[in-house]
C-alpha cells in the first residue's frame, strides 16, 4: 500500500467544523519509555563483547554523520572529554546501525531491562578519559540527537574503581530485544528510509523553513494515528515509541515519543534546526519538539495537534507563555546518571510569536457556542478554559465553573468555537480504585482509564453548542471461585460454585459460565451437573472474557464396592457379605460363580459354605458389578 499525503496550503488550513474530543491517554506516564544508565565494575566485563575500533583519531570537531541526526545535544555538552566520548560512541553506533550485525546477549549483575534479556549493540573503549559523573550526559545526548537509532534501549558504563569520580573504562549501548536480529533490522531500516524519501519529496522546491515545517507536520498528522492498546491506553509495544511506528507500513501509528522523534528526524533531513524535548504534558510524561525558524525558537506538539486523528494547530509554533502552561521539560540535573526518557538537556527559551500558526494563517473570528454538562454518573466534573489560543486569536478567561450542581446555569458556558477547554473528572470512588470513564460529547463516545478519587483531565474543542456527559464504569479486576478442583461420582450429580468478585463495586458483576466439555459436565449459574465420565474445565468469565477463573472437574462413573473384609467361611457356616453403591442408588443382587461350593441369598448377601473350595462372590446393580474371591474351608 503506497503512502498518501494530504498537503494543504499553509494559508488555508483550519480546524474541522465538527466537535473534537481530544484523545489524550488519561494515564500516559508510559507514553515515554525510560531506561536507566547502569554502572558496573570493570571486573564484570564480559569478554565475549567485541570492542569497536575507531577508524581514526576523534577530534571532537565533527558533529553529524548523516542527515537524520541533529547537533543540539552535542553542543550542550560542557566538556571536551564528553564530546570525544560522544563521537566515539556515535561512530560505533553508526557502524552498527548500517550493518546486519546481530546484537549480543550478555550476562550481567543486572541482566534485564524492563523484564527482557539484555543485548549489546556496541561497546567502546573510553581509554579512561572521562569520569562516571559526566559520561551519562554524553550518552543520553547522543541517543536524543539520533532519532534514527530505533533499536537503542539503555546504556552501561564500566568503572575502574568504586570511587565517586572513577574513570570510565568502557561504555555499551543496549539494543532492544525487538531489533537484535541484524537482517530484520536492515530490512526495517530500508523501509523507513523509503518512507522518509516520500516525505522529503513533499518539500522539494520549498524555500521557506516555516512552509517545510508545516508541510511535514501536516503529512505526519494525515498519515499517522495515535497508538492505543486494547484498553485504550498508550500502546507499550516498542514500535509505538520509535520512528518505526511512524514510518512502517505495518503500523503508521505511534505515541508521543514516536511522533516527536519522527518529526525531529524529518526536520533534521530538511535542514531545520530543532530539539527533541521530554517532560511533563498536563503533569504526565510527554515528548514534543522545539523548532528554530529565522533565528527564533518555537514549541510544537505534533501529538496533541493530531488529537483523535483530526489535524489542528493548537500547539504549532507557540511561545512559552502559552505552551508552558501545560508543557514543562524535565530538569537537566541528575543524582547519579541521567535516565533516558526522564532527563532533558537545557532547552531554549521561546518568546517569539512571528511564526505561530495563528500569525501565519488567516485567523478568522468564529461564533460563540455553549458547552454544558448533561448526565453525570459517579464523578464530579468541572469544565474550565485552558487559555489556549487556537485559531480565533482570543485568549479566553478561565471560567473554572463547576456545572454539576447547577446544570441550568445558562445551560453551559459561552466560549468561542474551536477554543480548547479542559474537562476535569474526579470519580466518586475509593482512592486509587481502577475505573473506566466514558465521555460522550454530542453522541460521540470515548473510553479512558482512571482511578477513584484521582483527577483525570481531557481537552475538548467544541465547534457548536455542545453537551458533555460522563459516566464511570468500574471493571472487574479479579474473580475467585470457592473451588479450583472438584470430583463428581455418578451422572446427574450436582455441585455449586460460588464466586468472589473484586472490586465489590464492579458495575457489571454478571458471570458467563461455560464448560470446555459439556458432554462430561454442564454448568448453569455456577451449578455443575455431571453427564458422563471424563474431565472438563468450568470457566467463569467477566468483562468480555478479559477476567476469568476456572475449576477443573473430574466425573467418575458410578461404581459398587464390596465392603465386607472377611474372605473365608467354613462348610456349613454362613458369612454376611456387604457392598455399597457410589454415584447411584438401588438394590444390590448377589450371585456366586460355583453354587456347589457355596450358596448366597440374592437380596440378603448371606453366603453359606457347602464344600471346600474357592469361588467368586459377585455383587450387581444393573451393569455395575464388583466381585471378591472367597475360600470355603472344612
What does this structure look like?
The chain is built from ten helices and 41 strands. Helix 2 crosses helix 3 and helix 5 (209-223) runs antiparallel to helix 7 (256-269). It is elongated, with a radius of gyration of 36 Å.
Q: Which residues form runs of ≥5 with pLDDT under 50? A: 1-29, 57-66, 109-115, 386-411
> Count the helices. How many?
10
Structural class call reads alpha+beta
Helix content: 10-25%
Over all CA atoms, what is the radius of gyration?
36 Å
Strand order of the largest sheet: 2-7-8-6-3
Overall 3D form: elongated
List keywords for this structure.
634 residues, 5-stranded mixed beta sheet, 5-stranded antiparallel beta sheet, disordered N terminus
Give a brief rundown of this model.
This protein is of the alpha+beta class. It contains 10 helices and 41 strands. A 5-stranded mixed β-sheet has the order 2-7-8-6-3.
Amino acid at each position: 500500500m503506497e503512502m498518501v499525503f494530504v498537503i494543504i496550503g499553509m494559508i488555508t488550513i483550519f480546524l474541522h467544523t465538527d466537535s473534537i474530543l481530544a484523545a489524550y491517554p488519561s494515564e500516559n506516564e508510559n507514553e515515554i519509555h525510560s531506561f536507566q544508565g547502569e554502572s558496573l565494575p570493570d571486573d564484570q566485563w564480559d569478554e565475549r563483547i567485541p570492542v569497536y575500533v575507531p577508524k581514526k583519531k576523534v577530534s571532537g570537531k565533527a558533529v553529524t554523520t548523516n542527515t537524520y541526526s541533529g547537533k543540539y545535544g552535542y553542543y550542550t555538552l560542557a566538556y571536551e572529554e564528553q564530546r570525544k566520548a560522544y563521537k566515539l560512541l556515535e561512530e560505533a553506533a553508526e557502524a552498527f546501525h548500517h550493518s546486519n550485525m546481530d546484537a549480543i546477549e550478555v550476562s550481567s549483575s543486572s541482566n534485564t531491562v524492563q523484564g527482557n534479556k539484555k543485548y549489546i549493540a556496541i561497546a567502546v573503549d573510553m581509554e579512561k578519559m572521562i569520569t562516571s559523573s559526566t559520561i551519562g550526559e554524553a550518552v543520553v545526548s547522543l541517543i536524543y540527537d539520533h532519532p534514527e537509532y530505533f533499536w537503542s534501549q539503555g546504556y552501561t558504563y564500566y568503572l575502574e574503581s568504586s570511587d565517586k569520580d572513577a574513570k570510565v573504562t568502557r561504555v555499551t549501548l543496549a539494543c532492544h530485544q525487538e531489533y537484535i536480529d541484524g537482517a530484520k533490522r536492515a530490512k526495517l531500516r530500508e523501509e523507513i528510509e523509503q518512507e522518509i524519501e516520500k516525505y522529503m519529496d513533499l518539500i522539494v522546491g520549498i524555500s521557506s523553513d516555516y512552509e517545510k515545517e508545516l508541510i511535514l507536520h501536516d503529512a505526519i498528522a494525515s498519515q499517522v494515528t495515535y497508538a492505543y492498546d486494547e484498553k485504550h491506553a498508550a500502546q507499550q509495544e516498542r514500535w509505538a515509541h520509535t520512528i518505526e511506528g511512524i514510518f512502517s507500513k505495518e503500523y503508521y501509528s505511534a505515541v508521543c515519543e514516536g511522533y516527536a522523534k519522527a518529526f525531529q528526524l524529518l526536520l533534521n533531513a530538511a535542514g531545520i534546526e530543532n530539539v527533541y524535548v521530554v517532560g511533563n504534558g498536563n503533569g504526565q510524561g510527554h515528548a514534543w519538539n522545539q523548532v528554530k525558524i529565522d533565528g527564533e525558537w518555537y514549541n510544537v506538539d505534533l501529538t496533541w495537534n493530531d488529537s483523535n486523528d483530526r489535524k489542528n494547530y493548537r500547539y504549532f509554533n507557540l511561545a512559552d507563555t502559552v505552551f508552558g502552561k501545560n508543557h514543562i521539560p524535565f530538569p537537566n540535573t541528575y543524582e547519579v546518571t541521567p535516565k533516558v526518557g526522564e532527563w532533558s538537556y537545557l532547552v531554549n527559551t521561546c518568546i517569539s510569536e512571528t511564526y505561530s500558526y495563528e500569525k501565519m494563517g488567516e485567523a478568522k473570528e468564529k461564533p460563540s457556542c455553549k458547552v454544558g454538562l448533561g448526565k453525570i454518573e459517579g464523578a464530579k466534573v468541572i469544565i474550565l478554559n485552558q487559555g489556549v489560543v487556537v485559531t480565533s486569536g482570543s485568549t479566553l478567561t478561565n471560567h473554572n465553573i463547576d456545572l454539576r450542581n447547577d446544570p441550568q446555569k445558562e445551560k453551559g458556558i459561552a466560549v468561542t468555537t474551536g477554543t480548547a477547554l479542559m474537562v476535569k473528572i474526579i470519580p466518586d470512588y475509593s482512592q486509587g480504585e481502577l475505573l473506566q470513564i466514558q465521555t460522550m460529547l454530542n453522541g460521540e463516545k470515548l473510553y479512558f482509564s482512571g482511578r477513584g478519587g484521582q483527577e483525570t483531565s481531557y481537552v475538548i474543542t467544541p465547534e457548536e453548542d455542545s453537551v458533555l456527559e460522563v459516566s464511570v464504569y468500574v471493571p472487574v479486576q479479579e474473580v475467585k471461585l470457592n473451588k479450583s478442583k472438584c470430583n463428581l461420582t455418578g451422572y446427574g450429580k450436582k455441585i455449586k460454585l460460588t464466586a468472589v468478585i473484586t472490586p465489590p463495586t464492579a458495575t457489571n458483576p454478571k458471570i458467563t459460565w461455560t464448560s470446555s466439555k459439556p458432554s462430561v459436565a454442564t454448568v448453569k449459574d455456577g451449578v455443575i451437573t455431571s453427564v458422563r465420565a471424563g474431565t472438563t474445565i468450568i470457566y467463569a468469565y467477566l468483562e468480555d472474557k478479559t477476567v476469568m477463573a476456572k475449576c477443573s472437574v473430574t466425573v467418575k462413573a458410578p461404581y459398587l464396592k464390596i465392603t465386607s473384609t472377611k474372605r473365608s467361611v467354613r462348610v456349613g457356616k454362613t458369612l454376611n457379605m456387604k457392598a455399597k453403591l457410589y454415584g447411584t442408588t438401588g438394590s444390590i443382587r448377589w450371585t456366586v460363580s460355583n453354587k456347589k461350593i457355596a450358596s448366597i441369598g440374592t437380596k440378603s448377601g448371606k453366603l453359606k459354605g457347602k464344600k471346600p473350595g474357592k469361588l467368586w462372590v459377585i455383587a450387581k446393580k444393573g451393569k455395575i458389578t464388583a466381585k471378591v474371591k472367597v475360600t470355603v474351608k472344612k
